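sry for the spam today, last one i promise. struct tokens for design, 261 residues
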């Protein structure tokens, strides 16, 4: 139990938006926050300091709120905890009725169980996390980049997509690349992952090599797709995203290959 004079991190969430003054999670005594809350719950620790998810009351319209992307430049462990708070908040908002018997659910009283529990059948319902792949494809000294219609600032990024039922991650990588750009890939290898709470995705990142074909963008999904070299890069995703990390790793691999020639 947190004492009134103890300092903690407070990740205050309202409909997927966060209270992040100075673009970071407040590190305060609870009494100094002055936020009307529905409830709060400790969901972890950051550097040995308690980290709380706090759900903001619906009528708290005066608070300046921002999206999770504003925290991309913070430490990855802190970003992961903020992502967890957003995903739990989404669970609490979207899973208030039991899909098994239809009765109302409430947040588990046990802090170690991140679930909504049915009043009737007592079935726990955990956060619905959607697995996604994201992949950087290399062709000699080039990296495959794509532009999506939602990117109105001319930003290019790597290919991503949702995993389908019964599909391995590697098959999903090959399928998404083929469907969206028309090319084939091989040498698919795991790179890393990032929780992406928009609202409940887990991005699993891969590197792959070009294996044939010509770029033919699926214009229902993309605005454009190109092979880009290091000296001719368009606007890229921001630092802190796993998309940017994939691009930088690919460019680093290209440089290392050149130095070995």
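last one done:
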């Amino acid at each position: 139990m947190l004492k009134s004079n103890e300092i903690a991190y407070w990740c205050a969430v309202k409909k997927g938006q966060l209270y992040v003054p100075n673009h970071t999670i407040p590190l305060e005594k609870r009494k100094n926050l002055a936020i009307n809350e529905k409830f709060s719950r400790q969901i972890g620790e950051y550097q040995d300091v308690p980290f709380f998810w706090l759900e903001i009351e619906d009528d708290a319209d005066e608070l300046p709120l921002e999206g999770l992307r504003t925290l991309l430049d913070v430490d990855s462990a802190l970003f992961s905890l903020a992502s967890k708070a957003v995903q739990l908040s989404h669970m609490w908002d979207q899973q208030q009725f039991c899909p098994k018997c239809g009765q109302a659910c409430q947040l588990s009283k046990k802090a170690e169980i991140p679930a909504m529990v049915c009043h009737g059948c007592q079935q726990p319902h955990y956060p619905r996390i959607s697995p996604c792949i994201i992949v950087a494809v290399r062709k000699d000294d080039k990296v495959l980049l794509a532009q999506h219609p939602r990117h109105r600032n001319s930003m290019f990024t790597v290919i991503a997509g949702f995993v389908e039922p019964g599909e391995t991650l590697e098959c999903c990588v090959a399928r998404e690349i083929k469907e969206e750009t028309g090319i084939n890939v091989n040498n698919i290898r795991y790179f890393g992952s990032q929780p992406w709470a928009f609202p409940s995705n887990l991005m699993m990142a891969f590197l792959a090599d070009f294996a044939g074909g010509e770029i033919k963008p699926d214009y229902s999904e993309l605005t454009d797709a190109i092979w880009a070299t290091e000296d001719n890069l368009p606007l890229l995703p921001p630092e802190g995203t796993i998309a940017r990390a994939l691009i930088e790793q690919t460019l680093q691999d290209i440089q290392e290959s050149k130095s070995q020639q």
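Residues 141 and 254 are 6 Å apart (CA to CA). ok im logging off now
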